[in-house]
Amino acid sequence: VQLVESGGGSVQIGGSLRLSCVASGDTIGRYCMGWFRQIPDKEREAVAGIESDGSTSYANSVKGRFTISQDNLKNTVYLHMNSLKVEDTAMYYCAARPYGRVWTFSGSYDYWGQGTQVTVS
Q1: Residue 112 forms beta bridges with which residues?
Q2: How confident is the model at residue 52 (pLDDT cuts 50, 70, 90)?
Q3: d(CA 121, CA 38)
């Protein structure tokens, strides 16, 4: 499956963005999806995950501010980000993994997008 993210950009503190991840080559309904973020010289960090049954999980740092969702008809996963903080600045990646693997572990994911940059200032 190929994943392409979009929706990143520059936003003021307290603002909102919606990231999109469009999948092709396979249906996202067959996978569990996740959003990760990374800043230079740091490890990739799990931000949010959504299981095939629709259940969601979040990193503590974004809980209550970010929402992951998916539209199987559009084969798209979203990350709605509200109340953005400077520390949310990072490259954001969408990823797909088979059911049963740990959502927070980047090694669980078989497919990755190219990333979209989010800058909060």
Answers
A1: 95
A2: confident
A3: 17
